[in-house]
Specification:
337 residues, ABC transporter involved in vitamin B12 uptake, BtuC, 0% strand, globular
Length: 337
């Protein structure tokens, strides 16, 4: 009897220790992941057609093009992965991210309308339009979900994909009707080729978004347990969902205005992290940001080298990888049923 009691106590202590170690941030694997991302960043800095070491203005071109591009990769990877993580918590669905909820398509519609109202809009105006319509579109998506009684794991993303397809069709029609086809094509082809010094600095606002999400991580995690549970634990569910949606819209709007459409990044990374670490937002957020940075940097390096001296849009690489991961996740959920 005494032996069984000691075994139970020891087992409880071991499980608590494992849980503690599981939620720790600064672990050896995380430090190795940071080192790997730093190495990828260095590779990105020295990847390209232009010979920065053999030309007289190589140093200038290094700081004008390579450094901004690498910084934009890191910030964008963190933003889109983080947005997918928060969306999956709020909707309680693994298959949700800005691409499968129509958020990115709404941002594109906002950009088209800004170009329609202002023939030569500044980056601030484009960002404002993208952020505003991202927020409106995401809230409309949540309203649709509230009216749907059948909330299976497949219905939730399908509603977002259908809504996004409608908004994308409207954007295309408006662009063709008002001869803005080039603006539409530029947005749909998400690429970092045009990132230069002076044209990406607003992406640093994503750091503020990350900081705010980390502060409210516990409340967002409770919101992910459902309205009834969150309310019973003293969390204002409606306010925290509105706050989380606003942060997501802000991050997605900035990325859409500066870079363009980057599909499936918010689907791949959060699912991989949650698969191994569970659903605790506070401990997962650093992992999601770091892996998001690494994923998009790898895709961008491939896009620059696969058919050198030409460059493939990074959205093409991301879309291909993301589609495969999306199908794998669907197949896995079907087998679990």
């Amino acid at each position: 009897m005494q032996k069984n009691t000691i075994q139970k106590i020891t087992g409880s202590e071991n499980s608590q220790t494992q849980c503690y170690n599981h939620n720790k941030i600064w672990t050896k694997p995380f430090i190795l992941a940071i080192i790997a991302v730093i190495i990828l960043g260095v590779i990105s800095l020295f990847t390209g057609v232009y010979d920065i070491r053999g030309q007289e203005d190589g140093i200038n071109m290094f700081f004008i093009t390579r450094v901004p591009r690498t910084a934009a990769l890191m910030l964008t990877g963190a933003a889109m992965s983080m947005s997918g993580l928060v969306m999956q918590l709020i909707t309680q669905n693994r298959l949700v991210e800005p691409t499968t909820t129509g958020t990115i398509e709404w941002a594109g519609l906002g950009l088209i309308l800004v170009y329609l109202l202002f023939p030569a809009p500044t980056l601030v105006l484009r960002m404002t339009g993208a952020i505003l319509f991202s927020f409106i579109g995401t809230m409309i998506y949540f309203l649709f979900l509230r009216r749907v009684k059948l909330r299976s794991s497949l219905i939730v993303p399908i509603i977002g994909i259908m809504l996004g397809a409608v908004i994308s069709a409207i954007s295309t029609f408006v662009g063709l009707a008002f001869q803005m086809k080039q603006n539409i094509e530029t947005w749909f082809v998400g690429s970092f080729a045009s990132v230069l010094i002076g044209k990406y600095e607003y992406l640093w606002l994503i750091v503020i978004v990350t900081f705010l999400i980390f502060i409210y991580a516990d409340r967002l995690t409770l919101a992910g347990l459902g309205e009834d549970v969150a309310t019973s634990l003293g969390v204002n569910y409606s306010k925290i969902v509105l706050f989380g949606t606003g942060l997501i819209s802000f991050a997605v709007g900035i990325v859409a205005a500066v870079i363009g459409n980057l599909p499936f990044l918010g689907l791949i990374v959060p699912n991989i992290v949650s698969m191994y670490r569970g659903d605790d937002l506070r401990s997962n957020l650093p992992w999601v940001c770091v892996l998001g940075m690494g994923t998009i940097t790898v895709c961008d390096i491939i896009s620059r080298t696969i058919i050198m001296p030409f460059e493939v849009p990074v959205s093409l690489i991301l879309g291909t990888v993301g589609s495969v991961v999306f199908i794998v996740i669907l197949s896995k959920q079907r087998r679990l049923r």
